[in-house]
Amino acid sequence: MMWFGGGSRNEEGESSSNPLAGLLVMILGPVAAGIIQMAISRSREYNADTEGAAICGDPMARASALEKLEAYSRQIPMESNPAYNSMFIVKPLNAMGGMRELFTTHPATEKRVMNLIGRPRTGLYRYAA
């Protein structure tokens, strides 16, 4: 039984499609969809930052607020389940390694500040990277 397309049949009427290909599609499809969904979420964060800065009329104020939140989150680190990351304004600390950026719903604070003022830091706050 083929779930994704019919596949071809040989002379005896048996299916000659590769079951491994179907298995890979079933496994990698949802992973790819999740990565795309999170990329869209990060894009929305950038847009929200830009719109918030436009409403208040000062991108530096928005950038400063993001840095202040980042500094406070580093003072009191909190381990959280990655499934709940979208509920935070600043991404919490998770041990996800080098692939972390693909699976986060929020961009790094430095990237959000860069998007707002054109540089990764405002220079108003110091926090350990």
If you had to describe this structure to a student in words, what would you say it looks like?
This protein has 129 residues and is mostly helical. The protein has one domain (19-117). It has helices at 19-56, 59-75, 109-117. Helix 1 crosses helix 2 (59-75) and helix 2 (59-75) runs antiparallel to helix 3 (109-117). The longest helix has 38 residues, at 19-56. The chain starts with 18 loop residues before the first helix and ends in a 12-residue tail after the last helix. The mean pLDDT is 77.
In short:
The chain has 129 residues and is an all-alpha fold. Helix content is 50%, strand content 0%.
Features:
129 residues, elongated
Helix count equals 3
**Helix amount, in percent?**
40-55%
Q: Biggest sheet, open or closed, and with what strands and sense?
A: none
What is the end-to-end distance?
A: 52 Å
What structural class do you assign from the helix and strand content? Answer: mainly alpha
Oligomer: single chain
The sequence of SSEs as H and E is HHH
SSE layout:
Blueprint: H1 19-56, H2 59-75, H3 109-117
